Amino acid sequence: MPTDRFGRDINYLRLSVIDHCNLRCVYCMPLRGLRFTPTEELLTAAELEKVVRAAVSVGFRKFRLTGGEPTLRADLLEIVERMHRVPGVDDLGITTNGILLPELAEPLRQAGLSRINIHVDSLNPERLKRVMRFGSFPQIWAGIEAAQAAGFSPIKINAVVVRDFNEHDVVDMARLTIERPWHVRFIELMPLGGGECARLSLSQYVPNPETRQRIEEALGPLVEMPQVSRSDEARNFRFENAEGVVGFISPVSEPYCGDCNRMRLTSDGKFHLCLLNDDELDVKAALRNGGGEAAVARILLAAVAQKPTGHRLEQGVSTERRAMFQIGG
Ligand code: SAM
Ligand code: SF4
């Protein structure tokens, strides 16, 4: 397994396969001024497979497709099939807003996908519309049900908590875990990309200790669960006798950089070394100049070797040249 200069084992690759999205969450994508990567500049399914084969050859085992909205890739099933066939891919997940899952959940399962995380910020249709802007609550809920019917387990639900938009909705969302074996995870806002979404992410930030307090005041104490893996970004809790799990992902109030095991691939083919820094290494140029798996593996190992640690959010420093939808979270 590749180890970086801070002694961290890096074995998890998140691949952003597209930067388009069918939603416009207030903290992620502005309504105007967006420029998307042209289709011919996105890595093809065959190129993505080559990156995954190279990653496995140097010890990566865990992979996740993200975006933008990964379900907008017309060849998503082919991508999943190709990745699933690579020996050594032990864990293959997707992060999605769920809108297209009613059609895709079952075929994705058949293609070899093992995990689904679904992003929904509120159970209240009006407030969901305000924060995620396009799409609707019934559509996303149908997506969650489709994922469950297709047999994905556990279903993980991600909610970003945004002051004056949905900070009170966390109680209803946490309540879901009492009777369902779902993981409902609350994510702190991070400012990325320097534009209006980054400004909103700073001004509407809600620390997770506040979210936890709100939930416990309404629903009773949460009991912390033992950590299964050091690199799990969530701290996990349960209500007594509950079926599911309440998780807190707190990159700002409780940074977990020391346990980071991730490398990221942007939709336009760069290894992005740390979510909250700008450092990148180009891999698409090598792929398009005839480079094979060995060339990709060399770039990936260089990316691991140069991976920084410790973000500087508290000093107001973050990724400036990339927005979240280009990196994939
Ligand atoms: N479209 C998919 C989705 O929403 O799950 C995948 C891509 S999205 C960029 C991945 C994750 O990033 C989502 O869980 C989303 O909530 C999160 N996210 C986006 N912008 C964020 C921000 N400014 N701060 C924290 N999380 C953010
Ligand atoms: Fe789209 Fe996901 Fe960004 Fe929302 S968070 S705009 S669903 S990419």
The fold-level CATH name is TIM Barrel
Q: Work out the helicity level.
A: 25-40%
How does CATH name the architecture? Alpha-Beta Barrel
Portion of residues in beta strands equals 15-25%
Order of helices and strands, N to C?
Answer: EHEHEHEHHEHEHHEEEEEEHHH
Rough shape?
A: globular
For the biggest sheet, the summary is: 12 strands, mixed
> What's the number of extended β-strand segments?
12
The rounded Rg comes to 19 Å
**CATH homology group:** Aldolase class I
Molecules bound to protein = S-adenosylmethionine, iron/sulfur cluster
Q: What is the CATH class designation?
A: Alpha Beta
Mean pLDDT: 94
If you had to describe this structure to a student in words, what would you say it looks like?
This protein has 329 residues and is α/β, with parallel strands linked by helices. The chain has a single domain, classed as Aldolase class I (TIM Barrel, Alpha-Beta Barrel), CATH 3.20.20.70. It has 11 helices and 12 strands. A 12-stranded mixed β-sheet has the order 7-8-9-6-5-4-3-2-1-10-11-12. α2 links the parallel β2 and β3. α6 packs across α8. It is globular and about 60 Å long. The mean pLDDT is 94. Bound molecules: S-adenosylmethionine and iron/sulfur cluster. S-adenosylmethionine binds next to β3, β5 and α11.
Note the main attributes of this structure.
329 residues; alpha/beta; TIM Barrel; 12-stranded mixed sheet; 11 helices; binds S-adenosylmethionine; binds iron/sulfur cluster
